[in-house]
Specification:
This protein is α/β, with parallel strands linked by helices and 334 residues long. The chain contains twelve helices and 15 strands. The strands form three sheets. It has a six-stranded mixed β-sheet with strand order 6-7-8-3-9-10, sandwiched between helices.
Length: 334
């Protein structure tokens, strides 16, 4: 009976927090960089912190990794208080910044062994750990070449491999794919997924919204020193209106008939012979539009569905200027 009660209570417990913070504050002179930031990141998950340049993302990472002190608030990382047990925090984390810490003058293997020495691993264990990580990150063939000869993606993989030498439970990745080509970026995503599969918690800052959408279990948006939104990617997307269906016609008569058939809420573009109407992008909503067209014997030449994506969320919440981009949330049916 006791074991049954214990089993039930364990199932009912909330997930263990790998990172928690209450009221984190940091200012430089008159500029407040963090203004009462609260965080609660479950162990074994990916948490992405988004925000425009200067929003305080890197400052948050530096505080949580004990590189700088907060002006106020409290935080724990891997069960260690960042103020009273900074050494415990450092022993439980790994940090990789947007600028590689790899020493280009020595080989990849020597970089790994140097990190093992810094963690005070016995020589034999250090060589074993280095060899395992070099193999895991597909760097065996390049291990004895100077790191300066590595590609950007290889240097970033080596950088992360070096942070894993000490077996960290929490890894802070501060814009880890900055400057990488798309192939290397996708390769790095695979590395991050493997880390989480092994039970590591990843705290990710990124300016690539697709990256956060692809990887993160939860996402927070930082703007003006405050967290202005937090949730899953889907929860954040629902915060922003603007989903719609756009129909384009080549026949002016079909265009006018569609305007009449679709009724209120239609926005017409006379020059492009296109109509646009609100939609949440669901199958039911799309079927309703198509049924109305079918009932009126109207056929559109092109149908485009747009649902809000993280770009829309980011720009709506931060007031940033929308850049020219390839909108992958648009799906065209001809």
């Amino acid at each position: 009976m006791a074991s049954s009660v214990m089993s039930t209570s364990r199932r009912d417990r909330p997930p263990v927090s790998a990172v928690s913070a209450v009221g984190l504050r940091k200012a430089y002179g008159d500029k407040t960089v963090l203004d009462g930031v609260d965080l609660n990141i479950p162990a074994g998950s990916v948490f992405a912190l988004l925000g425009p340049n200067g929003a305080g993302k890197t400052t948050a990472v530096k505080i949580l990794s004990t590189l700088i002190r907060a002006d106020g608030g409290q935080a724990q990382v891997a069960g260690h208080d960042i103020t009273t047990d900074a050494q415990g925090v450092r022993g439980a984390i790994g940090v990789t910044g947007q600028f590689s810490a790899v020493d280009g003058l020595i080989t990849g293997e020597e970089n790994m062994l140097l990190m093992a020495d810094l963690h005070r691993l016995p020589r034999a264990e250090g060589r074993r750990v280095a060899a395992e990580l070099l193999e895991r990150f597909d760097l065996v063939e390049a291990a004895r070449k100077p790191a300066a000869s590595y590609s950007g993606g290889m240097k970033r993989r080596l950088d992360i491999a070096m942070t894993l030498v000490g077996g960290p439970r929490v890894i802070f990745l501060d814009e880890p794919t900055t400057g990488l080509d798309p192939r290397s970026r996708h390769s790095m995503w695979g590395v991050i997924r493997e880390l989480v599969a092994d039970g590591v918690t990843v705290f990710l800052t990124t300016q690539y919204l697709e990256e956060a959408d692809e990887l993160a279990d939860r996402i927070a948006v930082l703007n003006g020193g405050k967290l202005v939104a937090e949730g899953t990617a889907e929860e954040l997307k629902r915060l922003v209106p603007g989903g719609h269906v756009r129909l384009r016609f080549t026949d002016p008569d079909a265009f006018r008939s569609a305007v009449a058939a679709l009724g209120e809420g239609v926005v017409r573009d006379e020059e492009a012979l296109a109509v646009q109407l609100p939609s949440d992008g669901s199958q039911r909503a799309l079927r309703s539009v198509l049924d109305r067209l079918d009932a009126a014997a109207i056929e559109a030449d092109e149908l485009t569905v747009h649902t809000p994506d993280l770009d829309d969320v980011f720009f709506a919440l931060t007031g940033a200027t929308v850049p020219v981009r390839n909108d992958q949330s648009k799906e065209t049916v001809r």
